[in-house]
Amino acid sequence: MKRIQRSIATLSVALTLGMSGLAYGQELVVYSARIENLIKPVFDLYTAETGVKVKYLTDQEPVLLQRIKAEGDNTPADLLLTVDAGNLWHAAKEGVLHPVDSEVLTKNIPEHLRDPDQRWFGLSVRARTLVYSAQRVKPADLSTYEELAEPKWKGRLALRSSKKVYNQSLVAMLIKEHGEAKAAEIVGGWVRNLAAQPFADDTKTMEAVVAGIADVAIVNTYYFGRLVKKDPAVPLAVFWPNQSSSGVHVNVSGAGVVAASKNKKAAIAFLEWLSTEKVQKIFAEANLEYPANPSVPAHPIVAAWGPFKQNRINVSNAGEFQAVAIQLMDRMGYK
Amino acid sequence: MRGIALLIAASVAVPILVILASFANPEPKIWRHIVDTLLAELAWNTLTLCFGVMAGTFVIGVGAAWLVAMYDFPGRRMFTWALMLPLAIPTYVLGFVFIGIFDFSGPVQALLRTICSTPLGWFPEIRSTGGVVLVMTLALYPYVYLLTRSAFTTQGKRVMEVCQILGCNRSEAFFRAALPMARPWIAGGMMLVLMETLADFGAVSVFNYNTFTTAIYKAWFGFFSISAAAQLSSVLLVAVFLAVWIEQRFRSKMRFGQVGRISEEASRIRLAGFSKWAAFASLAFIVFIAFLLPGAPLIYWAVASAALEPNTAYQGLIARSIFLSLSAAAVITALGLILAYIQRHTGDLLTTWAIRVSTLGYALPGTVLAVGVAVMIGLVDRGLMRMGEDLLGLKIGTLFQGSVLTVIVAYAARFLTIGFNGIGSAMNRIPKSLDEASQLLGVVGWRLIGKVHIPILKNGIFTAAILVFVDVMKEMPITLMTRPFGWDTLAVKIFELTSEGEWQRAALPSLALVVSGFIPLLLLHSRSEKAAL
Lengths: 335, 533
Fold this sequence. Notes:
The complex is a heterodimer.
Chain A: H1 2-23, E1 27-32, H2 36-50, E2 53-58, H3 61-71, E3 79-82, H4 85-93, E4 97-98, H5 103-108, E5 121-133, E6 157-158, H6 165-178, H7 180-193, H8 202-210, E7 216-220, H9 221-230, E8 236-239, E9 249-258, H10 264-274, H11 277-285, E10 290-291, H12 300-303, H13 317-320, H14 322-331
Parallel strand pairs in A: 1-2, 1-3, 6-7
Antiparallel strand pairs in A: 3-9, 4-9, 5-7, 5-8, 5-9, 5-10
Chain B: H1 2-20, H2 28-70, E1 71-72, H3 76-82, H4 91-102, H5 107-115, H6 129-154, H7 157-165, H8 170-181, H9 183-199, H10 202-206, H11 212-222, H12 226-250, H13 264-267, E2 269-270, H14 273-305, H15 314-345, H16 349-358, H17 366-392, H18 404-428, H19 432-440, H20 445-474, H21 477-482, H22 490-499, H23 507-530
């Protein structure tokens, strides 16, 4: 019995020492829905500059959120990084994120790309736009997301599954703008115009346009960027919809400080660093996205698509209207 | 003994109970939406999928097992192991490869478009019910094949001799004697297939095919309600529970023994002429479409994208995948053996039910089960911390959270049924008289297991261990959610790439996973060839 007690005591001391090591802030823990390839270069740079080690775990946002909740006060997580605003909105609503009052962040990140209550901040912008066949469609024929519901697009539209959060956010924004009845009409029109069953990802959706099955698709720009990178001659082009109305639908990849973090100061410093110009460039370029910080230019491939007007409705609305959007898409038979 | 059974059962049943506890937090709105707008489609899709996959795996699995166990024809030895290989390919990988080959942008349709000038309206849509059923059947039939083959080869040839004496022809002998006698094995395999099909999310989402599991994820990821997701999952649990219960009730009055020892080689019937080549061709076709056809593009994509992943340390990913799979296989087969032994000796109702509950985890979507495990570990850790403070006056950190132990517990909660099924049905073949004889000689308790049962069960245990190994290799959601820092595995890498739609880049880790998975399968084969028992 003595021996057991002693070994428990030793173990505990070791663990306590381990824990206090964390408390000195030499290490930060990030739970990330952004994949390793896209975050590791940035984290490595931070370690090189400041000596602070950044540990991370990747998974899908809702799972990371559940992990933080199950771990409760013992969670090692300091920062939650996601790839859409809806999940950040949800994490904030669940009380998992800590409000951050930072001049640097409010200066670097535009208002519509961060939480009105400062619990999370967008770090890169993902524009969901139209990509069309350069051979079969004239840009003059295109105008808005709404117009893709018109009969002239029958059998010509390619969409990704409604289960992807990007489409849920897009429809959520349509609901916010037009109300549910009008949004339902638009979604119903899209479904009638589909050239094929919705695809599992944006790349397959665009490949259907390349294959001649469909003429126009709604996708995130960086997926198009990847196609262009692989094959510069791909017969597709970007169109910026809704330029004379609400603007292109944007979402963010962003982060917030975990409420149970024991390292909040260090976590905030890291978050601020992520919003600075030099880092923004690396962060966005890794995935051919738009930097959230407006003073940072985009990657040349991305810049080549030209400037566009963003929808300025706060991206947190995507989370608020998400459930309504999903129900609407289910009712209209958008799978 | 009953205590041990209950303890094991409890530790894997708690996560399941956590899920059932979600009913404390009702979600009427989400349920109403699902019932009103989705249920008809989901129920129909799920039923067709289950029925189709079970029918397909039954025909292929049992048919192939019967051919290689009972007949001799060209290539038989090769087919005994080649037919197992698709087991190493995760269902979601098989899914994305099939879509890559046959969908609009794939090489087949592209080629056809350049040949014919007319639109390819006649080309079957791969992203359809038929497509999902095909892919899942090809990925899952090895479970049925593997278990049924071991049943047929251990049945003993005297059964067939008796049939011949009674004047049955071969097909009568098959349907009236061999098939009913192999029932526990076939049922065990089919149960695994059913649960695997019900819990699958990876493959169906590649096909954008809506099943009950899709609704579970929709409730969680879309409606942000883990409670509703857990409640929907309980419906799956109940369905599987009923299926298991009905199947067991039907055969509760039956006893399965072994008639004489086996001398395999002598008993095989040599096929001649047309039937010889028909057997060869049908098995060759299965191996081709389930393994070679998807294997070729995997290799092609892996080579093409290898240069894109220069910094990925594949040795580390492979080593961690193998380490986790081995540890899980060891723990789960040990637990399965203990449970099977206890079930044999204490037939009381409580034990039986405890075992039933603890082997249900396989029917749950991995992520949902993982949440249950995470909640349980959190509770245990907080309890231990409080105890540490109260009893020892020490502040201790978390012991289980973020440790490899958590991952293994989660795997056990999910895969215990594989360990238990494989070993349990092999245990059925040991006649009670053998136990009685041993007891008369004073060999009882643990010594009975060690000296008498384990030697006889060797093959069953080995098969169960390999199945667990391969399953853990392929497992994705539990590994993702419960892994400690730095414990990325091949499946994690595949998840990261596929979540970004980078299917072709995912080919390299997929290929590494398939290769690491089929090495133990080949081991299983060489072992089962040697063991004549």
